Task: structure prediction
Amino acid sequence: MAAAGLSFINWLYGFFILPESLKPENRRKFEWSRANPLGSLENLKRYPVIFGLIISLGLVYIALHAVQSNWSFYVIEKFGWDEADIGYSLGAVGLLSAFIQGYLIRLILPKIGQKKGVYIGLLLYAVGFVLYAFATQGWMMYVFMIPYILGSIAGPALQGIISTQVPANEQGEIQGALTSLQSATSIIGPLLMTHVFSFFTEPSEKVYFPGAPMLLAAILTLASAYLARRSLKRTAGN
Result:
């Protein structure tokens, strides 16, 4: 109910207060085929130059569910955490994310550039996933949050590069399509990562490895980096 109330307040703010950022000459007629999630995903095919970057971003979104969908299961299984321990850890994630994404990214990206931001961010994500996978003590999860959450600079850097390859009158459409992509991966990611976790924590299985989803996420992130590298060579011409 609280989430529904906040969403409604957000809608009121957007509809009545938030100004239209697009200049009149760049606006287009509204079409439902472009506004619905499936239609916006279909329209991604219209951007072949950046399609590899879009797939790269999708792989990152899926990989993140190794943590987002499994955190509670993982720390209970491996460290025996209770509800309070999980709450404190998620609170720490929230505070660190707010600092990095709300403040630090605005300082880092202009200095290193979006292209380096993609590579550094994806590398940090991969390192964070591997560290999580092989953590042996509960306190390590707090330390390993730092490289993992610093990796979140990759998302804004990728989105920033994608936006530069799209005309001004299609910016809203591409951002909406990327949001639809994130929603679609929120179906795939939890199913994949929770099933991997379940498989590798079954007592009947020969291999017991609760960190398997994290390791899979690291592999997906490295694949994302490879696709981003190939696509950035084409878009940047080097």
